[in-house]
From TrEMBL:
GO MF term (any one): ribonucleoside triphosphate phosphatase activity
Signal peptide: none
One Pfam family matching this protein: Phosphodiest
Protein name per the record: Phosphodiest-domain-containing protein
Database matches in CDD domains: Enpp
GO biological process: nucleoside triphosphate metabolic process
Organism: Thelephora terrestris
Keywords, comma-separated and alphabetical: Membrane, Transmembrane, Transmembrane helix
Segments crossing the lipid bilayer: 56-75
Length: 515
């Protein structure tokens, strides 16, 4: 795996392996006589700090005073006061300490591609569930339509619907640039900035002067404004999770001056297993165990560094997965006639089908035929134009969306007599984004979730079931929400000034109740 670092850290900031070991407590570190490496890039450790014993007395006195004042004022604290304190804490830019080193507020977001929301109920992810019980978990997180990988990862990263950020399908034709977008063929230019509209989290954080790191998150290495993450790990499909964990910790173990405050990580293994063998397969369950172990090891590493109240960790997925091992095939030329296939210039998306006919074709007539076919087969598929597309899809306002869109219902697959039954895997996504099989996960743990718990236990929220609830044995459950809300949460956790936030499709004030 290759790595590029857009900003070269100062070599004088490197620490010895023994110094990095000294950062850990109650944690066994295997000393192989050399610093950990990822590819050809050496991890950097912490600088030596000023003698720590001089700070201990001051901190003890501070804690004593805080506890004394807290006892005096805790009971009469009002709901608004609780919210004020939580909001100020989350937005603070002051340096924090894990007891040995200084840190800035840090957010780590990990996307596990294809991790369907109800996978967490199978019994193969005890550590993820434990993390969610310590923090927050949504019943599910709704993906953006169409439910595809690059599209939803860019929605998570920018807070925008597909019609706003321009990635409207796994593959599509852009009539403005007269180019084809195909994320699986980087030589075709799909990573060129002009495709990817909107402002990703790492660009906004960079505007606020923060160091950022991106480990394989789908998207361009450089935005249209020329912005790029400080540290960039380019995508490779088969990198083990253990190596990704090493890289994450390598970034977290950097000296303060070059340490990223925002880290985004992408893991495709669950999605790959779901496509190849279906969502109910042994391979998917085994892959869930591997991901769960990664989550445990990550959490243990943060605990051993005393960082659980400094680093906010957010686990998400882009979508779920449906069993498509035995679909009922729909041949569109059975309705249009085989001659119509000669007039289709571009066919976008999968499993939906966006159609662009050539100028000499009678597109209106073909549309009328398809609309009549959909009317007679409501249980199988729908046909829309940009004008009739359901508003809840937010899928109309860009020329990149094909003028005719056929959307199959679950259990059905679109094809032509030329293509046949090729291309369908045993598991797939791309169906109605309200379907339970398409739902994604959201789990958060760290100072954010701790503050929410404190607010709850202090009765700052009078209605326990107003959007979330908890019991001693249950996770803190949030109601389902759309993934375009995540951008604003991350900006708030990082303490980015609101005037620097990009415009998004997220709901203004959505996260207020949790702060």
């Amino acid at each position: 795996m290759s790595y590029s670092c857009n900003t070269t850290p100062n070599p004088s900031l490197k620490s010895t392996f023994e110094e990095r070991k000294g950062l850990l407590s109650n944690f066994d570190v295997e000393d192989d006589g050399r610093p950990p490496r990822y590819g050809d890039e050496e991890y950097l450790g912490f600088q030596e700090r000023a003698p720590f014993h001089k700070l201990i007395f001051v901190r003890i006195i501070s804690v004593f005073v805080a506890l004394t004042l807290g006892t005096a004022f805790f009971l009469p604290m009002s709901r608004s006061r609780c919210g004020e304190m939580a909001g100020r804490s989350m937005g603070s830019s002051a340096l924090l300490s894990n007891g040995t080193h200084e840190f800035k507020r840090t957010v780590l977001i990990v996307s596990v591609d294809g991790l369907r929301a109800d996978y967490l109920d199978r019994g193969f992810t005890p550590h993820l569930l434990d993390i969610s019980k310590q923090g927050l978990r949504a019943k599910s997180m709704r993906p953006v339509f169409p439910v595809s990988i690059p599209l939803n990862h860019w929605s998570l990263m920018t807070g925008l619907y597909a019609e706003s950020h321009g990635i409207v399908a796994n593959s599509f034709w852009d009539p403005v640039s007269e180019q084809e977008f195909n994320p699986y063929n980087t030589r075709a230019g799909s990573l060129q900035p002009f495709w990817w509209l909107g402002e990703p989290m790492w660009e906004t954080a960079g505007k606020a002067g923060m160091i950022t790191a991106n480990l394989m998150w789908p998207g361009p290495p450089v935005t249209r404004t020329g912005s790029k993450p400080t540290y960039l790990g380019t995508f490779e499909e088969t990198v083990p999770l253990s190596e990704k964990l090493d890289q994450i910790l390598g970034w977290i173990d950097l000296p303060l001056e070059v340490r990223p405050q925002f880290i985004s990580v992408y893991e495709p293994s669950v999605d790959i297993a779901g496509h190849n063998t279906g969502p109910h397969s042994r391979l998917v369950n085994d892959t869930l165990k591997t991901v769960d172990l990664f989550a445990k090891n990550l959490q243990d590493a943060l605990k051993s560094r005393n960082l659980t109240e400094i680093v906010d960790v957010i686990f998400v997925s882009d979508h779920g997965m449906a069993d498509t091992s035995h679909p009922e095939w729909i041949y569109i030329d059975d309705y249009l006639g085989k001659q119509a296939l000669d007039f289709i210039e571009h066919e976008d998306g999968w499993p939906s089908m966006g159609l662009r006919f050539s100028p000499e074709a009678n597109t209106t007539a073909y549309l009328e035929v398809l609309l009549e076919a959909a009317k007679n087969n409501r249980e199988k598929f729908d046909v829309y134009t940009q004008e009739t597309m359901p508003k809840r899809y937010h899928y109309s306002h860009t020329p990149r969306i094909a003028p005719i869109y056929i959307i199959p219902k679950y259990g059905y697959a679109l094809t032509t007599s030329v293509r046949g039954k090729s291309g369908m895997t045993k598991g797939n996504h791309g169906y109605d984004n309200r379907d339970y099989r398409m739902q994604a996960i959201f789990i958060a743990h760290g100072p954010f979730s701790s503050a929410v718990k404190a607010l709850h236990h202090q009765s700052c929220m009078q209605n326990e079931n107003e959007g979330w609830h908890s019991t001693l044995d249950d996770a803190y459950i949030m109601d389902p929400f759309q993934n375009v809300e995540v951008y604003n949460l991350v900006m708030r956790l990082l303490g980015v000034p609101k005037n620097l936030w990009a415009r998004t499709n997220g709901t203004d004030g959505f996260w207020d109740r949790y702060f």
